[in-house]
């Protein structure tokens, strides 16, 4: 994950806009509503509405978490600059009719202000200067959802801090029930493949234990290729990843099933790159020969309830049909 900072001129202009409009960011209704005091993971003490009526998720995964936790959404929400809509695996009913604006990797604070949120959930806690800017728009709960660990840990803490433990536990319960059901069916059918999450970057085949795919594969107890560099517990090992040159891709010969990120239009780099598809070593790999490359919307990588559920479905379909 990386973001591009606003230009100095744009940042200055946005700062002036925030300063001039700060008094209008809280409606009369919000003034009259009950508030609760919350201390965020950044150490900020905020006063937020007890029942926000126009919550905004600063990154798309924040939008999904807001929905899971039962928050009312503002009428405008952000999407990635390289997407045209919310990810298709997000809860579409709750997102119906919402307007969108691009907000990553470039940040559009003017659009955030114009959305008139009464509460902001911001998972980009690694952007140290961002929290202070968002606090000028609305009470903001900033946390780091991209610290390389299990996103569920920080999301669970957010649910506790925001008084939404029951909503969070309801999601956990249904997810764990699905995992248990799939594991039981895999065991009954004696299906125990070696799996890997792979990608293509600048001509190199990559594999790592990053984000949701690694978490789901570990939850299901599947054997991951050692090239993924998972921890001994089968969990993410930070930013460690393996790069394989065209001459090294044969090292993936022990992988039975491969998963790979796909673009919004469904295109998959490892299936369209001519240099790779023309590589004899690549074409000799069992999962290539057997058509066991399964694409998934790459936005599932970044950790949200719907992304976790959706990748679980991808694996279920790949292994059980």
Automatic annotation (TrEMBL):
State the compartments where it is located.
Answer: Cell envelope
Major localization class: other
Question: What SUPFAM superfamilies is this protein classified in?
Answer: Helical backbone' metal receptor
Q: What is the lineage of its organism?
A: Bacteria, Bacillati, Actinomycetota, Actinomycetes, Micrococcales
Please give the name of this protein: Iron-hydroxamate ABC transporter substrate-binding protein
Among the Pfam families in the record, one is: Peripla_BP_2
Per UniProt, the keywords (alphabetical) are: Signal, Transport
Position of the signal peptide: 1-19
| Keyword Signal among UniProt keywords | yes
Q: Which residues form the Fe/B12 periplasmic-binding domain?
A: 54-321
Please give the organism: Microbacterium gilvum
Q: Family assignment?
A: Belongs to the bacterial solute-binding protein 8 family.
Note whether Transport occurs among the keywords.
yes
